[in-house]
């Protein structure tokens, strides 16, 4: 099983391709897609979509896992992130990839065993679960990897039920 996992955003969008092989999680790819704040939103959205389509073509994932949107006090930002999620869901539909969503607490529980784990605990646990061969600059990328690990754990559990 191979999953394209995404921490949606339009300034920084974390992406990762994670697979489970022989009972072990493997990180095949991860990055943070960055767009410039002075670029018009439709162009930023297009950049994210094109990069995700390229990742799908390269890695051929079986599923896409996204962080479920939760509303913050900044509704304008939440609406833009919702638009990014919609565009990413359209990418999954275009390539006939199943879509799965996870809340931040589900991700924290699956990766660190505790729904209130902080970013450092998540990053440390990810390094113990799999080989991450390069330095990761932004939490968005760790978040995407964690979402992928969560999906692999949840889909494994549903297969064993």
UniProtKB/TrEMBL annotation:
Lineage of the organism: Bacteria, Candidatus Kaiseribacteriota
Biological process (GO), any one: DNA recombination
Keyword list, A-Z: Cytoplasm, DNA damage, DNA recombination, DNA repair, DNA-binding, Endonuclease, Hydrolase, Magnesium, Metal-binding, Nuclease
InterPro entries: RNaseH-like_sf, RNaseH_sf, X-over_junc_endoDNase_RuvC
Family named by the database record: Belongs to the RuvC family.
CDD domains: RuvC (cd16962)
Name of the protein described by the UniProt record: Crossover junction endodeoxyribonuclease RuvC
Cellular compartments per GO CC: cytoplasm; Holliday junction resolvase complex
Enzyme Commission numbers on file: 3.1.21.10
Cofactor binding note: Binds 2 Mg(2+) ion per subunit.
GO molecular function, one term: magnesium ion binding
Binding site for Mg(2+) 1: 7, 140
Subunit structure and binding partners: Homodimer which binds Holliday junction (HJ) DNA. The HJ becomes 2-fold symmetrical on binding to RuvC with unstacked arms; it has a different conformation from HJ DNA in complex with RuvA. In the full resolvosome a probable DNA-RuvA(4)-RuvB(12)-RuvC(2) complex forms which resolves the HJ.
């Amino acid at each position: 099983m191979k999953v394209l996992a995404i921490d949606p955003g339009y300034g920084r969008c974390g992406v990762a391709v994670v697979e489970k092989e022989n009972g072990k999680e493997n990180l095949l790819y991860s990055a943070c897609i960055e767009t410039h704040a002075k670029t018009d939103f439709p162009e930023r959205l297009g950049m994210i979509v094109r990069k995700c389509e390229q990742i799908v073509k390269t890695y051929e994932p079986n599923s896409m896992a996204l962080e479920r949107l939760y509303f913050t006090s900044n509704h304008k930002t939440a609406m833009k992130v919702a638009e990014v999620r919609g565009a990413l869901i359209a990418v999954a539909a275009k390539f006939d990839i199943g879509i799965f969503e996870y809340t931040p607490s589900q991700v924290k529980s699956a990766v660190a065993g505790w729904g209130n784990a902080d970013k450092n605990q998540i990053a440390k646990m990810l390094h113990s679960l799999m080989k991450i061969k390069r330095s990761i600059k932004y939490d968005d990328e760790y978040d995407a990897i964690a979402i992928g690990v969560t999906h692999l754990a949840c889909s494994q559990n549903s297969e064993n039920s």
